[in-house]
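Quarterly update from the structural biology core.
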Amino acid sequence: MDISRIGSNIRYFRKLYGIRQKDLADKLHVTRTVITNYEKGYNLPDIATLKLIADYFRIPVEQLMLSTDYMKESQKLRFEIKADNIVNLSKYIVFRFVYSENALKYNLFYEALEKHLLTLEMKSDMEWEEVYNLYLESWENNHTIEALVNMIGILLRIASYNSWNNDYTKLKNTIEKWGYIDHKTLKYYLKDADSDENNNEQVKFYKENEKSFFAIIKVLKDTNEWKDIADYYLALRYAVKFTDNEYGEGLNYFLFNEYMRNLIYLGNEYAIELLNQMEKIGNVRKSDI
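Predicted structure, tokenized:
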């Protein structure tokens, strides 16, 4: 068992969650020095302690004991986003909407797209279910595959509200006051978003829509034109916690970043476009991928 590797992994997951050594020490009922010695590889936690640490991070204990050195093998995408840019990034880049000349020939699709664009300008998620159902009608009646693409984007958009909404007022006020998201606020925002009540809402929404999501993904993956966006949304679902896994926000973001990195290497145009936009509005660099 590689003591230094385990210590490095403990440090990685602690920093991934934005947790201080003192926070982890208090949870384990030990001193901060004990945590420091674990992370530096001076001492090895016993199996029971490793299990407590893994439970705290909401990961399997094996994740701490793997040979992978997460500190060296992976880098998080870290960036601060201007308030106006986070709105545009969410509206038009993260959750894509698509159309074609052929799809616009059908009244149902045209009506759905028109409602979609209007809803984007509203600062509310109340209308998305109606937009989703209009696209569903368009697919069922006219087989406009663009409707499926937009439906899956809407599902993940709604999931993002469930994931990020728990302490949204606090975050919104900070953005409006300072014009950006500071890391301290984001840390506590994500921590609050990991509450049992919020996780229950996320899991409930996922369970209600899991079959539809993967049915759409399968249709899109079977086409040459839309298989890349299917892969992109398979990655994005971890960022908005559209899953019933037991991982916390931090580890799900880690999975999202790893998945996106692979897509970028494979030339996925949607993943590359997201990275390019993030470069413009934050401090993420291609070298971080």
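The chain is about 70% helix and 0% strand.
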